[in-house]
Prior knowledge:
By secondary structure, the protein is α/β, with parallel strands linked by helices. The protein folds into three domains: 2-37 and 78-128 and 219-313, Rossmann fold, CATH 3.40.50; 151-215, Helicase, Ruva Protein, domain 3, CATH 1.10.8; 317-395, Beta-grasp domain (Ubiquitin-like (UB roll)). Helix content is 38%, strand content 19%. It is built from 14 helices and 14 strands. The protein has helices at residues 13-21, 49-53, 92-99, 129-150, 152-162, 166-173, 181-191, 203-217, 232-239, 251-262, 285-302, 307-317, 352-359, 361-365, and strands at residues 2-6, 38-47, 63-65, 68-77, 104-110, 220-225, 246-248, 266-267, 276-277, 320-326, 344-347, 367-372, 377-379, 390-395. The strands form three sheets. Strands 1, 2, 3, 4, 5, 6 and 7 form a seven-stranded mixed β-sheet that branches. It has a five-stranded mixed β-sheet with strand order 11-10-14-12-13. A two-stranded antiparallel sheet has the order 8-9. The longest helix has 22 residues, at 129-150. The two termini are 29 Å apart. The relative contact order is 0.13.
Amino acid sequence: MQLGIVGxxxxxxxxxxxxxxxxxxxxANYPFTTIEANRGVMYIRKPxxxxxxxxxxxxxxxxxxxxxxxxxxxxxxxxxxxxxxxxGRGLGNKFLDDLRQAHALIHIVDASGSTxxxxxxxxxxxxxxxxxxxxxxxEIDYWLFGIIKKTxxxxxxxxxxEGKKIEQMLGEQLTGLGIKxxxxxxxxxxxxLDRERPALWHDSDLMRFTSFLRIFSKPMIxxxxxxxxxxxxxxxxxxxxxxxxxxPTSAExxxxxxxxxxKGVIDYVPGAKKFMVLHPETLTEKQRKALEYxxxxxxxxxxxxxxxQCIDEAVRMLDLxxxxxxxxxxxLTDKEGRVLPDAFLVPKGTTAKQLAYRVHxxxxxxxxxxxxxxxxxxxxxxxxxxDGDIISIIADI
Length: 397
């Protein structure tokens, strides 16, 4: 699974990416700083079973901080999008090509209204961020429409002549875009389109169809970045927009807190609503004021910087759960003796055998049974694992 960090230029996408991954993508106050897509690993937050079970865990593929497990998920920070990107304007072709790899999108919007439609700096409040939300969706819709329209006449007629379902044909055609047959089916049902005679669909039907296809196949979170600098009336209007999951965000604050944590200046769990200064006497006046600002204008006001909340919400929209595979169901260890070493993100509905394949191909090929380590119960191959399950896999190897 992969999250795409999207938006127009100069809204804080790379700052958000750096804050979430500590990958240190280039940051600058001008459009098109990001040309090649930056890849990294972000982390969703889940309660670690170590607290509940009173254990000291030794994570291997993830991190545990004060009982919160940070589980990895791949992320992609793509080039900024400008109007008419679907026609190749700006870095549009590059953006849309990168976009196809993402399963969910976090749209970074400059909630302060201090960047115009091209991403150029302007006065705070002088640009309407709602226009940026609409334009990005429109660009993706036109992009999808162009791909589908290119072969639509042939596909729709072939569907009718050969009796092959149009959703199956489109699912096969669009698989490289991360679009599945069930996404196509959901969009068709939403609009009550004629599945038996798709050749009768008008361009307007196809355009509405692609819009819903985008919604179902690329679910989107809106990160209202620079929320601490946004006019209050603008924030209230944005938060009240129907049909969107809006999260007030200050990527700059999260990045600053992460850097302060790395330097031992503060004690802070990423995504938390407060931090503690460890050695106040060592702070300069500038550092003290900066930390006070983050606490009062961001954390106290919004409950967090919003960065990790965006990631958690995107994963929730993808219906993913976290499962902890172990070798020893009694000690909850792997073969090296590490306690609760791994945490895997898997789709809801994943079976025990599918989890075995996720851990290692040999475990899946030679699967015998699994054990729910929480209740010490044997489960079969078709048993669906649940969020937070600790599973031991028994295989003939």
